């Protein structure tokens, strides 16, 4: 009896599996990505000195350039703190490649095709918090009004709220909640992925953290700072701007070693869970709401549990999930298997007779 060379057989089988997987990937219809500039009138003159001409990455689904008379819903996707659109769309290597995730999702015939749009909200402070501020510019208005207006006028969209969704990760999840609950006439469905900053920040900087904050005197100091110090500055730029306080034009929650409760009060006023009761009619008017977070992302998982409780108390329909994961490790999977099916189910794909 001849001896079987198991090593060779194993290599051969692995090669078949690799070829089969590669062949299947090559057969997946692929969308196209465009990266353009969209000017923000409300971003002009921001005290941070960031350009009002923002990069915007746009995913056009596989059929967009073939079916030239078809119109599409749009999902606006907001990236997280320290991220940018080029990282999410494959222009810069990152922990996720959104177009590849979207290609896989749309290969499933149950998922209907949409356009996906992401503005670059990376700023002098590494993130805009998607808020209106003289220091960072009016990012909330830029997303809800200026960007939506531009996309509707330059692409084959279905230009009404029923056909617009808003989603985002981390800081982008915060932005989706902040903007979504204020503008139900613009967006009809929202999905929050591991949203940061929903709850009021009651954390008072300890002596060490206060020392780090007050040691930042120049932009070079900021660039060398740790993540926690930077996020304090980004939050202050968005929520406690101060036009008479160069070089950063913001008020930190500590000054000369003294805690400033009036600053954290301003931050609280920008926490969606602190002001949610004033937006209940808006939230009830949304067509669909969903949010999730990994169980190992402890503080964020705790905040969306509170959000679930508030919406349940007000009898607002929503979908809530806590899954086994951390802040980033399963986001691609969540987008493919949950976010895209959510919008496929809840957005309107039917243009009006006038729009056809």
Question: Would you mind describing this structure in some detail?
Answer:
- With 356 residues, this protein is α/β, with parallel strands linked by helices.
- The chain folds into two domains: 29-199 and 273-346, Rossmann fold, CATH 3.40.50.1820; 207-267, no CATH class.
- Helices cover 40% and strands 16% of the residues.
- It has helices at 6-27, 85-88, 98-106, 139-154, 171-182, 207-215, 219-224, 227-239, 261-268, 272-275, 280-285, 298-313, 331-346; strands at 32-39, 53-60, 74-78, 115-119, 132-133, 137-138, 164-169, 189-193, 254-255, 258-259, 288-294, 319-323.
- It has an eight-stranded mixed sheet with strand order 1-2-4-3-7-8-11-12, sandwiched between helices. It has a two-stranded antiparallel ribbon with strand order 5-6. Strands 9-10 form a two-stranded antiparallel sheet.
- A hairpin with a 3-residue loop joins β5 and β6.
- α3 (98-106) packs across α13 (331-346).
- The longest helix is centred in the first third of the chain and has 22 residues, at 6-27.
- The radius of gyration is 22 Å and the shape is globular.
- The model is unreliable at 6-24 (pLDDT under 50).
Question: Which helices and strands occur, and which strands form pairs?
Answer:
Blueprint: H1 6-27, E1 32-39, E2 53-60, E3 74-78, H2 85-88, H3 98-106, E4 115-119, E5 132-133, E6 137-138, H4 139-154, E7 164-169, H5 171-182, E8 189-193, H6 207-215, H7 219-224, H8 227-239, E9 254-255, E10 258-259, H9 261-268, H10 272-275, H11 280-285, E11 288-294, H12 298-313, E12 319-323, H13 331-346
Parallel strand pairs: 3-4, 3-7, 7-8, 8-11, 11-12
Antiparallel strand pairs: 1-2, 2-4, 5-6, 9-10
Helix pairs in contact: 3-13
């Amino acid at each position: 009896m001849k001896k079987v060379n198991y090593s060779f057989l194993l290599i051969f089988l692995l090669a078949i599996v690799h070829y089969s997987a590669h062949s299947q990937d090559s057969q997946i219809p692929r969308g196209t990505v465009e990266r353009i500039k969209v000017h923000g009138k409300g971003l002009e003159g921001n005290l941070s000195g960031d350009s009002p001409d923002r990069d915007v990455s746009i995913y056009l689904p596989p059929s967009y350039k073939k079916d030239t008379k078809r119109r599409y819903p749009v999902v606006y996707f907001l990236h997280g703190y320290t991220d940018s659109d080029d990282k999410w769309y494959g222009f810069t290597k990152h922990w996720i490649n959104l177009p590849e995730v979207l290609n896989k999702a749309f290969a499933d015939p149950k998922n209907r095709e949409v356009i996906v749009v992401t503005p670059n909200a990376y700023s002098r402070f590494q993130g805009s918090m998607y808020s209106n501020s003289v220091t960072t510019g009016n990012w909330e208005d830029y997303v809800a009004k200026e960007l939506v207006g531009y996309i509707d006028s330059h692409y084959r969209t279905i230009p009404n709220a029923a056909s617009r969704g808003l989603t985002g990760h981390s800081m982008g999840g915060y932005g989706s909640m902040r903007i979504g609950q204020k503008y139900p006439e613009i967006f009809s469905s929202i999905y929050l992925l591991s949203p940061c900053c929903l709850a009021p920040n009651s954390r008072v900087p300890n002596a060490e953290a206060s020392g780090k904050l007050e040691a930042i005197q120049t932009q070079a100091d900021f660039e060398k700072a740790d993540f926690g110090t930077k996020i304090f500055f980004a939050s202050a730029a968005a929520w406690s701007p101060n036009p008479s306080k160069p070089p950063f034009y913001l008020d930190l929650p500590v000054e000369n070693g003294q805690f400033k409760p009036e600053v954290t009060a301003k931050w609280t006023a920008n926490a969606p869970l602190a002001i949610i009761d004033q937006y209940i009619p808006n939230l009830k008017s949304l067509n669909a709401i969903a949010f999730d977070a990994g169980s190992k992302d402890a503080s964020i998982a705790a905040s969306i549990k509170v959000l679930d409780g508030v919406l349940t108390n007000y009898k607002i329909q929503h979908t809530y999930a806590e899954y086994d994961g951390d802040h980033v490790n399963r986001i691609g999977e969540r987008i493919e298997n949950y976010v895209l099916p959510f919008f496929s189910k809840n957005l309107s794909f039917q243009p009006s007779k006038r729009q056809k």
